[in-house]
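Lay summary. Proteins are chains of building blocks that fold into shapes, and those shapes determine what they do. In this project we predict the shape from the chain. Here is one chain we studied, written as its sequence of building blocks.
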Amino acid sequence: MRLPTSGGSGAPGSSWMAGRSTDPGVCHREGLLGPDAQELSNAARVQLRSEELDRAEAREAGRSGRAQVTAGESQVFEGKFERTMDLTQGRMALVGNEKAFALVPWRHDLERYRGQSLMLDQKAKGLGWTLRSGRARGISR
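And here is the predicted shape, written in a compact code that computers can read:
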């Protein structure tokens, strides 16, 4: 259940180049920096976040043999909170079942439910999660 990426936080030009060369020439050739730019634009940050998430999802799909679930509004996904993944853009929670998995933004509130079954619900304002007991919490960004 992948959330849309948005232009958000991150210091310009700092950790967003993790995993890539920090050579400005390489960033210019890859189209991440304009001809006279010294900092990454919001569009470049969004692109890097999306590429990083794609790589993390591909690694998990290859490791587990499961499909990655992409979120659509009003889509519900049920799975167990298995583990966390630390990405440059922040910590993500991996929620999965036998056939599929979802990477969602991690929140401290989620940690106490590691190993438990959750229902993830994508809404216009963000992502909500519910435990089987019926208790609902929001983890919107």
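What the prediction tells us: The chain has two helices and seven strands.
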